[in-house]
Design brief:
Length: 468
Amino acid sequence: MEEFGESAFDRLMNEIRSRRARVAVLGQGYIGLPIALLLSRAGFNVVGYDVNEVLVEGLRTGSVPYPGEPGLPELLELGLSSGRYRPTADPDEILGADVFIIAVPTPRINGGEPNLTYLISAAEEVGRSISGDALVVVESTVPPGTTSEMVARLVRPRHARRVFLAHCPERAMPGRLIRELTEANRIVGGVDEESAELARELYSSFARGKIITTDATTSEVVKLVENTYRDVNIALANEIARVCSALGVSAREVIGLANLHPRVNLLRPGIGVGGSCLTKDPLFLANASADSGYIPELILRARRLNEEMPRSAAEEILSFLEETGGARGATVALLGTAYKGGVGDPRESPAKDLVAALKSAGVRVRSYDPLCEESFGSERSRDPYEAAAGARCVVLATDHPEFRSLDLTRLRESCDPEGPVLFYDGRLVFDRENVEEAGFVYSGIGEPLARASWPLEARAGTRRGSSA
Ligand code: SAJ
């Protein structure tokens, strides 16, 4: 419907440029909330819609639901005090918006298939709420083809309005959301060129990095490939850790030295890969490819290897406990339940499988995490020293910055005074010598219980490089 010669595209473009476009962001999670706040800071009137009334109520009173995100509390305060950010659980408040951004989770269900129910209901809500020409952006990570097929079907209302549609995947790390959402380069994939141009204009209101346009399916695949690359790289590091354990050398030292090569950049081995992204995106990609006739064995094997890591760490811990007085009834102190350091997010955390494996062998697990409330069935402690009381093993499962200043001597004094106590460094952040000096036996992913004794002199020069 074009009035006075102005096309739907021109009208929306003008509204976005002048910040007059009314924006609705569906989903006020880790990505939807900061996007809504960044757009409101850029001058748009933004409604932040979420079906979770408790979350919305908290946002209204200025309480930030995601700890450990620098800049987020200030942005929320600004959004609320300027009146340009309005959190709501009422779908009527998004009626007639000019721009709709869908930022709902797309978790995986068993077998790696995506659960698209949140996406479907958000897209249906958008379809019901569009009353004029509109731009719809999908931020959620989705299987290839979802935006141009399923979402297009659901958001295009029956009347003859123009609906522009794009997929703009976020590229931000939890713990660094605001910085990365504003600074990272972005890919904007439109179902047609005009959609991509409108979405580019919208994001350029707050994103300072490059914004590159492409088609929607390419952008969906790019997002999945980014996280697959990281998952496979970590799997290779974990495989190297197993190789190093078999050979009795330190994986940390090997990887640190190999990374001195200008074209080698191995990531860090660890007790597992958690979080909501790396654990599912490679499967979305692999399943879509398999459905189209090619089974990507490497990607699938890497995923399985990373999934095996918590159990293989548990086996190493259990075999130490068995050899030093028995595992049943022993206490293990677990430091960290969040899926990674610096965040409070427990989703898909490897700590879950680790606790389950230890408990099923009759071990008593006590945990402490400064940011995360989830304990996965272990007993929660108020601090690391309380968690370690009487323990025969301390496991570092999450590399929270706070743990780097642990008083190792005090920690050892809390543990079992009788026999040897294992410090299992699941994130390779501690220096073996410091831990051993405090009276622990040191081991970890790819770190043998005792360091290979040959050739000590030759190692002297590199040992410093392996410090935390
Ligand atoms: N991890 C390792 N070794 C490493 C790095 C990470 O074992 O060397 C583990 C972490 O402990 C954690 C898991 O991997 O359990 C994932 O952590 P992460 O920091 O690699 O990734 P996420 O899931 O927090 O964020 C990723 C990022 N993707 C890439 O860097 C390619 C982020 O940019 C994405 O926006 C995010 O996924 C997403 O939402 O897709």
